[in-house]
Amino acid sequence: MDAAFWDLNISSPQTLDGSARHVPGEPLPLEGARASRALRAQQLSLLGSGFPLGIIPSYSPTSQKELGSFSIQSLLLKPAFSNAWLGIIGQFRPKKLLSSIKAEFTVDDVLDLPAFKDVAKHFLDKSLYALGLCAQISLTPASSLLLMKESHGERKGHRNKAMLFNKLPHHDVTVEAAWPELFIDQNGRYWSVPESISLDLSSLVSESGFRYRFGVHKSSGLPQAFNATSGEPPLALMPGLCATAAFSYEKSRDIWRQKETKKDVIIKTEKGEYWWPSYDVRLREPHAAISGIIGNIASIYFFLKLFCQVILVLFQFFS
């Protein structure tokens, strides 16, 4: 069901937040994996304590071969407040810098002051760096606002994203806007959409097993190839409006189940009794079950460019 909507994230090294959007209606890329629900700033905050100075190595290929695929990332700042937190991510690619310095001293073997000044200029090359900003603000106990912005020195422009989450008693509502948004198709090619806006309403999993979801998405501007040299962009990314609805019904019946008792979680020793619960809630009751799921998805696309062309053809035909 999630693959038919516009909010499925695929792990990707092309962005500082570590994810790119999946193209709805297409199979997942062969080597693609669903991205973590934890934000990149949260991941770096956790991993930083295990690396010297909080510097974390990363592998992120780029279209410019001289930059190399190796990079180092670090969470530069992570201030937290009572109802908000902020994270600033920095990335540095050392390969081009080292190659430039090596070439500098190869040309001029004399280690004088002008030579060191020329070397210092290479550190100011903005293509070596990337900077990302992530902030989350808690508006109410049930709603929050997420803001993200990132800039890569070797690329033009910035990537911006804003997401509003709101939890209702039995539903989740998400409003998202990104300009531009990065998508990855089934062949692993990346496409940049100038503007992407979506509204999503999904029901929580109920005891009955019935679940439904509804979403509206609007794309503006023609998708541009990010790393593809040939091929047409997916039809779903063309400018226009898309409405998607889906439902599913899941049911499970136990063939056999051994209920957990107090005796299973209480350990008796010479020093007394201790509570020893199962480490996995799904394994605390051995069982055999049969389950099934049924559902359906429907999508309607309104392509603005195609609609205008049809109107123009009809106008020319009847005039």
Structural write-up:
This protein has 319 residues and is α+β, with helices and mostly antiparallel strands. The chain has one domain. Helix content is 16%, strand content 44%. It contains five helices and 18 strands. The chain has an eleven-stranded antiparallel β-sheet. The protein has a five-stranded mixed β-sheet with strand order 1-2-10-11-14, with no helix packed on it. Strands 16-17 form a two-stranded antiparallel sheet. Strand 12 and strand 13 (210-220) form a beta hairpin.
N to C succession of SSEs: EEHEEEHHEEEEEEEEEEHEEEH
Strand order, main sheet: write it out: 3-4-5-6-7-8-9-12-13-15-18
Shape: globular
Rg (C-alpha, Å): 26 Å
How many distinct helices? Answer: 5
Mean pLDDT: 84
Largest sheet: 11 strands, antiparallel
Number of strands: 18
From the helix content, strand content and strand pairing, which structural class follows? alpha+beta
Which residues sit in consecutive blocks of at least 5 with pLDDT less than 50? Answer: none
Number of domains: 1
Helix content: 10-25%
What portion of the residues fall into strands of 2 or more residues? Answer: 35-45%
Rounded to the nearest angstrom, the distance between the terminal CA atoms is 46 Å
Organism: Nelumbo nucifera (Sacred lotus)
Protein name: Protein TRIGALACTOSYLDIACYLGLYCEROL 4, chloroplastic
Transmembrane segments: 300-318
InterPro entries: TGD4-like
